[in-house]
Amino acid sequence: MNKKEEEHILAVDPGRDKSGIAVLSMDSKVLNKDIIKSSDIKSYLLRLINIYNIRNIIMGDGTFSGKIIEEIRSTLDIPIVMVDETYTTMEAEKRYYEEQGGWKRFFPFIHWKPARPLDDYVAVVLGEKFLYKDKK
Fold it and tell me: Could you tell me if residue 130 is inside a domain?
């Protein structure tokens, strides 16, 4: 099966200036993740939808989700599912340090600030929350 035949979800961590985007397979494999300017979200999502067979758009329920949902709905006819963003940033930080390696991952009780924004990691966590909820 190629990317267009398999079903995927597209997860969005919406923000005022930037948004995290992730495409996950239905078995939660991360196929794409990125941070983009929120003003570019519609064209970026259209590009991903042309590459992947997107079943749902998963949206974090943060402050800026309403505006982004309006933009998406004006163009796309894909179901949008809201997911609770509680603790997603903490989980994203944990994932980031696990992937990056290094000594900081051995001290999870110390709250390190990552050297870069983690909106893409948050989008992955949102997508996984949706997929795991679906399996319960």
Answer: yes
Cross-strand pairs, 22: 11, 33
* Residue 64 placed within a domain: yes
Residue 1 in any domain: the answer is: no
For 52, 71, 84, 121, the CA distances from 135, given in Å and listed in that order, are: 22, 30, 17, 21
| Domain, as residue range, for 35 | 7-135
| 3-state helix vs strand vs coil in the chain, percent to 5 | 40, 25, 30
Per residue in 78-96, pLDDT (tens digit) is 999 999 999 999 999 888 8
Instruction: Report yes or no on 2 lying in a domain.
Output: no
Q: Output 115 or 56, whichever has higher pLDDT.
A: 56
Nearest to 82 by CA among 99, 65, 104, 106: 65
**Contact between 52 and 126 (Cβ < 8 Å):** no
CATH number at residue 35: 3.30.420.140
The helix (H) or strand (E) run that includes residue 19 is strand 18-25
Question: Whole-angstrom distance between the N-terminal and C-terminal Cα of the chain?
Answer: 26
Q: What total number of domains does the chain contain?
A: 1
